[in-house]
Amino acid sequence: MKKLMIGNEAVARGLYEAGVRLVSSYPGTPSTEITEYAAKYDEIYAEWAPNEKVALEVALGGAIAGGRTFCAMKHVGLNVAADPLFITAYTGINGGMVIGVADDPGMHSSQNEQDSRHYAIAAKLPMLEPADSEECCSFTKIAYELSEQFDTPFVLRSSTRVAHSQSIVELSDRNDVPLRDYVKDASKYVMMPANAKGRHVVVEKRLLDLAEFAETTELNKIEINGSSLGIITAGSSYIYSKECFGDSASYFKLGMVNPIPLKALRDFAEKHDRVIVIEELDPVLETQIKAAGIKNAKGGDVEGKNLLPLLGEFSSELLREKILGEKNEYSELSDVNIPMRPPALCSGCPHRGVFYIFKKLKLNVFGDIGCYTLGAAHPLGGMDTTLCMGASISAIHGFNKIRGKESERKSVAVIGDSTFMHSGMTGLANITYNTGVSTVVIVDNSITGMTGHQQNPCTGLTLKNQPTYAISLEAVAEAAGIAKDHIRVVDPYDIAALETVLREELEAEVPSVVICRRPCALLKYVKSAPALKIDPEKCKGCRACMAIGCPSISMVDGKAVIDSALCTGCGVCTHLCRFGAIGGNDND
Amino acid sequence: MTKNIMIVGVGGQGSLLAARILGRAALDAGYDVKVSEVHGMSQRGGSVVTYVKFGEKIYSPVICKGEADVILSFEQLEAARWLPYLKKGGVIVTSEQKINPMPVITGAAEYPSDVIGKIKDKDVTVISANTLELAREAGSEKASNVALIGLASGVIGFDEDSLRVALTASVPEKFLEMNLRAFELGIKARA
Fold it and tell me: Which residues, 6+ apart, have CB-to-CB distance to B114 below 8 Å?
């Protein structure tokens, strides 16, 4: 049967067909749907772990136990999981193990552009890179065979375009791979120096074996079209190259991007007058190819980043322009000023009032990763830092240690419930342990929002929607040493109460945790209140209500009006109007 | 032959479903097909673009400037924003709906006037209708995306019956009747 699937669904299908038993992941765009689709198969145990390090360790434990396992994460998630990632090369596996990582060239939804291929090289792990959904499925299955053949986890790298594009996949049945026996083997799984020394020898030998395998594997495909131009490429860059050059160039498409087949690449390069390495982000292939002294048929250098950018996502248009010097023709409305349409906090978002109060109190705001990063945008504005998962709580501590009491009274860390469970808890322990006096605001919308509503350890539901223990943020804060009367819970729709609580906690000379608790307005179980209305008689057009950047409110002919289709009746705007113009809904 | 269709709009307007319907129709017709989706940040009321490409063999899922045969637009300003992606002589099928972006809401920018008229002055064909009103007539504003597909049914490479089959396969049964009504109203508005 054929089906249209996004790359992530196709990876999940590959997991199912490969007989995978366990999946543990932390959500992160563009990798999230792999795990969501995997969870739909009854044969696969799938879970959301609190962070990527935990997920990878769970998958490793399962693989040592003899089952086929998987974990998925976005590129920056692999930074969090780097500790166990490196050790997996030493221990090897028992049942097959694959680590899925999705890069985001062009930063559609990320804080940096990072090339995960560096990790495969640094951790000495083999890496495959599919170019479309069919390969997402087939490469996943091959990765399990190879993982068991070479006794190592395989990394499956994709990018936003591959992960989120639908193409046709041919479906097969599940291969019910039996559990392998588990045999205690301290020399393999207990990584202390005496054992690790022996395992390092295995790692280096395995890499040589994999390099030899790479020379002949059908994962790499050579397509010869004449001898004038040879392109060396992989993954999404391959599909852009094919679109641009069609049959006018030869291709060496790498399905396995670490290790690469230097002998076969040399042979390919020497048959072409011009050779270009086309790869998004860093010159990972190009550097290795050049270091091996590989030249084109005329003895000239292999080209790549001398023509193509290090930044952003590629396209056939970009290749056409940079390599062929051709530009696409098009029309545009050059005489019309088209306003930007940036993403914004949704109507009814419980984070909106929180950021309004931060701005009103002129606070330094140490932000974190989640929907609330949008609080940095105009008109709420005023975020000082957004770094990486959990860094709000750790960074405010460092900032306040340097700038002292005055700063403690003027700064907050803001972090979501899921991000707090991911890596905020350790930062909080650091504040109490090291006599910090920072104020931490947890915006608890009872879901992992930005990645599209995933459950987390605080929500009381598992990935498979089974009821489970819900970890209490208050209890965690208390256990971390925050005094009970400085753990405050507020409804963020009540911005007056929020302002009072924040003022008190900022003045307090002890660390505090303020939990702003209200579920995401987009959750299905959240029922909106009736839309609010602005009385045009009372509205003076002062624009005070515009300060919260609500998509439902706009100015028409000098008066504020509320879009009744968008308004969720949250009431935050009513606190801002000095003339009592906002309030009643149609029923009043 | 390759047909390149772009679907543009504002996060939350239902471009994913529209893309799924077209992808399904292309698959049923035996074409190779690629559909790109947008997830994450751009869903929060941002400008959203989805690509549908079908033909004998499709490589890149992305449509670049000057490459789209048809742009389906859920919102006027978005039609203007993505116009450079249309081929010379291509077709824009747009809803007349206007959604103010944040810079307009905050007063930092103005929503340009007579956007559709200005697009018509270019070397393109424009088909427009108030799809929101059509969808309301069909039973729900949410079916505005399906009304737009009805409006575009003459120019996207599939006959009406194939689109009906693809629509039936793509929406939950309890919303099917309402969506089919929106589709038919879209077809009528084409004339």
Answer: none
Convert the pLDDT of each residue in B80-128 to its tens digit: 999 999 999 999 999 999 998 988 888 889 999 999 999 999 989 999 9
Q: Considering only CA atoms, which of A384, A383, A382, A394 is closest in space to residue A419?
A: A394
Q: A379 preceded by cis ω (within 30°)?
A: yes
Nearest to A437 by CA among A368, A508, A486, A500: A508
The CATH architecture that domain A527-588 belongs to is 2-Layer Sandwich (3.30)
Looking at A292-388, list the stretches that DSSP marks H as alpha helix, in order from N- to C-terminal side: 316-319, 352-360
- Cross-chain Cβ contact B109/A339 below 8 Å: yes
Which residues of chain A neighbour B65 with C-beta distances below 8 Å?
Answer: 317, 328, 330
Residue of A nearest to B61 (CA): A165
Instruction: Please tell us whether the domain made up of A221-324 is placed in CATH 3.40.50.920.
Output: yes
Which of the following CATH numbers is that of domain A2-216: 3.40.50.300, 3.30.450.20, 3.40.630.30, 3.40.50.970?
Answer: 3.40.50.970
Cβ contact A328–B61 (<8 Å)? no
What pTM did the predictor assign?
0.96
Per-residue pLDDT of A508-533, as tens digits, reads: 999 999 999 999 999 999 999 999 99
Query: Which CATH superfamily, name and number, covers A352-517?
Result: Thiamin diphosphate (ThDP)-binding fold, Pyr/PP domains (3.40.50.970)
* Vertex A301: Cα angle to A296 and A307 (nearest 5): 110
